[in-house]
């Protein structure tokens, strides 16, 4: 996933000491897309509107660069988060107006799948997420999916449950089951072809302020059991997001999920492909390695391919050895992942 808005990618560039310019954004994403053998490890890449129309330094369209490697091009089609009226701290996603025309144009430009992201926040003391928030976002995801399919794009449905909070995995599981069930109820109501969709959920993790360490075996087992309760077998694949976990932890969690799913335990068997759609976990080390320097471009490309390879192996339950991340941070959590008031200089645009 490389579909961050201009504001979001800009914050990451600035944190690395770089300017948030069109050229810098182009140069960084070129490093993500042009490593040798990248197509061996990735099947699709999600782009932002600007990136869909950009080209490499040499003048080759990013769409063509990816397609020639056998990588399908995807596109973020939502217009971002807005505060949900009468529900403080909660959001809905806008962008349905004009969506069909945008989807058709993106298809003409070479996109073959789309993504729409909603966010929901867990706060047990405030009874969040509210039923209203769940209903509004489930309906929005379903409307988007219907329009995307009509326009020839495979919709990725992303009801992201933010990692912020003090709750444990049990609460995360209950909320995820409720939210995802509501999404599929709305998808069925709009007669969306489930076989032509993908789900992009959070792995079942405790809130980032939960005081106890949770190992990958527990994360994997609870994630599988939760998905089995609410994701229809007709859905071909679940593409997990990394959601702020470290690059290495995201890989280990995915590997453990697939190892358990391939075991002989009937209660852990899964009918779907269990894969990844990571943003920060695949990009942060590349940006750190590059740092805007001409002499580190090839090193950054090498890191990008190595990270893709590690997660491709994890998708098969075959990952082992030293992780290629260059960062030793415990997590990649960002404080601006939810909606912020336009007057807030740290808002996510």
Tell me what the structure shows.
The chain has 349 residues and is α/β, with parallel strands linked by helices. It is 41% helix and 12% strand. The strands form 3 sheets. A 5-stranded parallel beta sheet has the order 1-2-5-6-7. A two-stranded antiparallel sheet has the order 3-4. Strands 8-9 form a two-stranded parallel sheet. It starts with 5 loop residues before the first helix and ends in a 34-residue tail after the last helix.
Radius of gyration: 19 Å
Query: Which strands sit side by side, in order, in the main sheet?
Result: 1-2-5-6-7
Task: Provide the low-confidence segments as ranges.
Answer: 343-349
Helicity, in percent? 40-55%
What are the SSEs and their pairings?
Layout: H1 6-15, H2 22-33, E1 44-47, H3 49-52, H4 62-68, E2 72-76, E3 81-83, E4 91-93, H5 99-108, E5 113-120, H6 131-150, E6 154-161, H7 169-189, E7 198-199, H8 216-230, E8 237-240, H9 247-261, E9 273-276, H10 280-290, H11 297-315
Parallel strand pairs: 1-2, 2-5, 5-6, 6-7, 8-9
Antiparallel strand pairs: 3-4
Helix pairs in contact: 6-7, 7-8, 8-9, 9-10, 9-11, 10-11
Condensed summary:
With 349 residues, the protein is of the alpha/beta class. The chain has eleven helices and nine strands. It has helices at 6-15, 22-33, 49-52, 62-68, 99-108, 131-150, 169-189, 216-230, 247-261, 280-290, 297-315; strands spanning 44-47, 72-76, 81-83, 91-93, 113-120, 154-161, 198-199, 237-240, 273-276.
Please name the defining characteristics of this protein.
349 residues; alpha/beta; five-stranded parallel sheet; two-stranded antiparallel ribbon; 11 helices; 12% strand; disordered C terminus
């Amino acid at each position: 996933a490389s579909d961050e808005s201009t504001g979001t990618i800009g914050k990451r560039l600035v944190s690395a000491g770089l300017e948030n310019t069109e050229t810098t954004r182009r140069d960084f994403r070129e490093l993500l897309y042009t490593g040798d053998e990248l197509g061996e490890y990735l099947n699709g890449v999600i782009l932002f509107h600007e990136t869909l129309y950009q080209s490499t330094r040499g003048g080759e369209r990013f769409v063509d660069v990816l397609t020639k490697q056998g990588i399908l091009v995807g596109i973020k089609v939502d217009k971002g988060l807005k505060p949900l009226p009468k529900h403080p701290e909660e959001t809905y996603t806008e962008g349905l107006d004009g969506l069909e025309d945008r989807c058709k144009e993106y298809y003409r430009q070479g996109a073959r799948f789309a993504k729409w992201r909603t966010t929901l926040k867990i706060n047990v003391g405030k009874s969040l997420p509210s039923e209203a928030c769940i209903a509004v976002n489930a309906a929005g995801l379903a409307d988007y999916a219907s329009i995307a399919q009509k326009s020839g794009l495979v919709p990725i449905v992303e009801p992201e449950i933010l990692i912020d909070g003090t709750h444990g995995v049990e609460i995360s599981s209950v909320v995820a089951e409720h939210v995802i069930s509501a999404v599929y109820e709305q998808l069925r109501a709009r007669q969306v072809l489930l076989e032509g969709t993908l789900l992009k959920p959070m792995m079942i993790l405790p809130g980032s302020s939960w005081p106890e360490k949770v190992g990958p075996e527990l994360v994997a087992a609870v994630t599988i059991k939760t998905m089995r309760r609410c994701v229809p077998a007709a859905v071909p694949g679940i593409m997990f997001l990394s959601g702020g976990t470290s690059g290495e932890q995201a890989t280990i969690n995915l590997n453990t999920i697939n190892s358990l799913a391939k075991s002989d335990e009937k209660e852990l068997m899964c009918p779907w492909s269990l894969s990844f759609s990571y943003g920060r976990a695949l990009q942060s080390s590349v940006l750190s390695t590059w740092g805007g320097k001409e002499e580190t471009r090839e090193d950054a490309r090498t890191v990008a391919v190595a990270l893709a390879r590690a997660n491709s192996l994890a998708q098969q339950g075959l990952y082992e050895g030293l992780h290629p991340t260059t960062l030793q941070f415990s997590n990649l959590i960002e404080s601006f992942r939810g909606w912020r008031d336009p007057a807030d200089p740290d808002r996510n645009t």
